[in-house]
Amino acid sequence: MLWPKLIGFAVLSLLLAQLQFIPSDAAVSGCSDNFTQVAGKCLFAANYWYNWYQAERHCRSLGAGLFNLQNQTQLQQISDWLNATLPYTIEFWTSGNKLGQYGANYYWQNTGEQAHYLPWANGQPLAASGDCVTLFANYTYYEGILGYNLVVRNCTHPSPHVCEKQTQITDNRICLKTGSYENVQVLL
Ligand SMILES: *[C@@H]1O[C@H](CO)[C@@H](O)[C@H](O)[C@H]1NC(C)=O
Ligand SMILES: *[C@@H]1O[C@H](CO)[C@@H](O)[C@H](O)[C@H]1NC(C)=O
Ligand SMILES: *[C@@H]1O[C@H](CO)[C@@H](O)[C@H](O)[C@H]1NC(C)=O
Ligand SMILES: *[C@@H]1O[C@H](CO)[C@@H](O)[C@H](O)[C@H]1NC(C)=O
Ligand SMILES: *[C@@H]1O[C@H](CO)[C@@H](O)[C@H](O)[C@H]1NC(C)=O
């Protein structure tokens, strides 16, 4: 009665002792599906002519939201990425908007937070144009794209967009199963 248990325990202990020596890869952060890691976020640029509401729905269908900007570093990194991946697309919906707001504040729809970093293009924000915000390329025919800044648009205006998801941190762990073990990737 006792022996099988003892032997089982001994085998399990040996197994666990062995497992300690199986090297595990360090945790890595990355992006799933067709998202690319940019500025510490997972981004996906969609070159469809959707209005803000459709763009927002499209991002939701991918488990994401429209993107936001938190600081100058992010603007720079996202600008470099857009300029390199979609150099002929000059406008992208962000999650920025002031829908339903009477004041002058803008909000990031994907976080629900008030937007504090708003790198407006010259002459913006033109609140009378609409309630939604795009990232717009400052473009000249001879010099190409000089930079990207925020512009207020009518939310029904069609434009490409960028979806944002958080990066996923994964780690390889050894998991014990009855009679065997397998190597699985876990989401942290
Ligand atoms: C990724 O993009 C490819 C090519 O556009 C598409 O066929 C595929 O369905 C996309 N994968 C996901 C998970 O959206
Ligand atoms: C920019 O914002 C990101 C996300 O909040 C943060 O991780 C990063 O440290 C910020 N960079 C600077 C220079 O403020
Ligand atoms: C585009 O960049 C040029 C040069 O920096 C600047 O003079 C102009 O005001 C910018 N245009 C907008 C709309 O921000
Ligand atoms: C946005 O566009 C729609 C349809 O063209 C129009 O009815 C509406 O008045 C516009 N809104 C603003 C704030 O310009
Ligand atoms: C965008 O890319 C073009 C071509 O590589 C380059 O000439 C231009 O300086 C870039 N613009 C920005 C703002 O990085």
TrEMBL record:
Residues 1-26 form the signal peptide. Keywords: Signal. The keyword Signal applies. It comes from the Eukaryota. Residues 38-164 form the C-type lectin domain. InterPro entries: C-type_lectin-like, C-type_lectin-like/link_sf, CTDL_fold. This is C-type lectin 37Db-like. It comes from Drosophila albomicans. The gene is LOC117571267.
